[in-house]
Design brief:
Structural class: alpha/beta
Number of helices: 10
Number of strands: 22
Number of domains: 3
Oligomer: single chain
CATH superfamily of the largest domain: Aldolase class I
Largest sheet: 8 strands, parallel, barrel
Distance between the termini: 47 Å
CATH topology of the largest domain: TIM Barrel
CATH class of the largest domain: Alpha Beta
Helix content: 25-40%
Strand content: 15-25%
Strand order of the largest sheet: 1-2-3-4-5-6-7-11
């Protein structure tokens, strides 16, 4: 029987703490920005955080990829040279870039670091993939517009040593492979320079001018809030894991550097469990239990986009954001103190609430009811606690021994 090659699971890391959460829940690698020179410049990772993330990842045998995937004006290049030298010194595992000029700088100023070609470069053919390989790329991140037959064609005809990465979960941009000028046009915040305002997620009112009544604008509205005519559902390929793994894809990528630790833990854990379970027992793979976990954290509808069908039209999100009415981020385990656990809370908690502990690499959660709460400073017993300030903590009992960093989910 042919051995199934296990792909890398690549998660977003908008901060050092989020990177630790991603690793804890099974990510093999994370990608993060360099402050101003990436396509998520509002993420929390600065150069100090990045250095900490790389050091920590390497200490546990994991990888970090840094992004300099902007389309850079000439005025950016002096800073790019400095960032490239810094990343070379930090021994980051790869740099993700999309601009040919930036890649030339990386070859000169970060000669020891592999280059991964960003999805922003619109790689949608093996001809393009092989071009990047011949120009120094170790990996290409394919455009999300491809269907599975196109991906198979690329895998069959690419250079043997070229790695291929695809997105399996997260937001889909309105623009081609994420290249969009809508934000710059409407908000003077360029997506291609790392400052996207996510204008495609805004609510809009559409007006149509009637031919027989010039000047009279007729509103076309979904409801009193307008309609989300540009917003897409989120990509979700959990059902397609068997086919994706069988293609020999090197890395499966989750989008979302601005998402919460709760989102990261839930999504990374679901995909990690799905990959491991499929490789362990391909004939019994059942995607429904992983999808059920993903549904608990979704903020929009889910779609396979074009993966199975180029003519698929079920990817438009007309409702705006959708929050799961049954579950929310409860808190994060910080440490054990005299038999109780110190929890950093993220939503209101009450005695009697039903909680779930997300266990790394297991799709089944540990469920329990909060029987007691204690003020973490005075140690007085309390009935409820609100996240009134950042870092608000509380003490509680958890019926099983849990490690620091685990995420708690609250059933509403």
């Amino acid at each position: 029987m042919e051995t199934i090659k296990k792909p890398e699971l690549l998660a977003p890391a908008g901060s050092f703490e989020k990177a630790k959460t991603a690793f804890l829940y099974g990510a093999d690698a994370v990608y993060c920005g360099t402050g101003a020179l990436s396509l998520r410049s509002r993420a929390e990772v600065d150069n100090t955080e990045l250095a900490k993330t790389i050091e920590y990842a390497h200490s546990i045998g994991k990888k970090v990829y840094a992004t300099i995937n902007i389309y850079a004006w000439d005025s950016y290049y002096e800073e790019i040279k400095k960032q490239a030298q810094m990343l070379n010194n930090l021994k980051v595992d790869a740099i993700i870039a999309s601009d040919g000029g930036v890649m030339e700088i990386l070859k000169e100023y970060a000669p020891n670091i592999p280059i991964h070609v960003s999805t922003q470069a619109n790689t949608v053919s093996y001809h393009s993939a092989n071009f990047w390989y011949k120009n120094g790329a170790k990996r290409v991140i394919l455009g999300r517009e491809l269907n599975k037959e196109q991906i198979k064609e690329i895998m069959k005809n690419k250079e043997k040593d070229l790695e291929v990465e695809i997105f399996v979960h997260g937001a889909i941009c309105f623009g081609y492979s994420g290249r969009c000028f809508l934000s710059d046009f409407l908000a003077s915040r360029s997506a291609n320079l790392g400052d996207c305002a996510q204008s495609c997620r805004w609510a809009y009112n559409v007006y149509v001018e009637e031919n027989n009544n010039p000047g009279n604008l007729m509103p076309v509205e979904y409801d009193e809030h307008g309609t989300y005519i540009f917003s897409s559902k989120d990509l979700c390929l959990i059902k397609e894991i068997p086919e994706i793994v069988s293609m020999g894809i090197h890395s499966l990528k989750i989008e979302g550097r601005l998402k919460t630790e709760y989102y990261l833990a839930s999504v990374v854990n679901a995909y990690k469990a799905a990959i491991d379970d499929y490789i362990k027992s391909p004939e019994s793979y059942d995607y429904t239990k992983y999808l059920s976990e993903l549904e608990k954290t979704k903020t929009r509808g889910l779609t396979t986009f074009y993966f199975n069908d180029r003519n698929n039209k079920d990817f438009q999100e007309y409702e705006g954001k959708q929050y799961n009415p049954n579950y929310e981020f409860g808190g994060k385990v910080l440490q054990e103190l005299n038999g109780k656990y110190l929890i950093e809370i993220r939503n209101k908690l009450n005695v009697g609430d039903t909680m779930e502990v997300l266990i790394p690499e297991k799709i089944e959660t540990v469920k329990f009811t909060i029987e007691n709460l204690w003020n973490s400073e005075t140690k007085e017993e309390i009935q409820t606690v609100n996240p009134g300030k950042q870092g608000q903590t509380v003490l509680m009992n958890i019926p099983v021994k849990v490690e620091n960093g685990l995420i708690l989910r609250r059933k509403k």
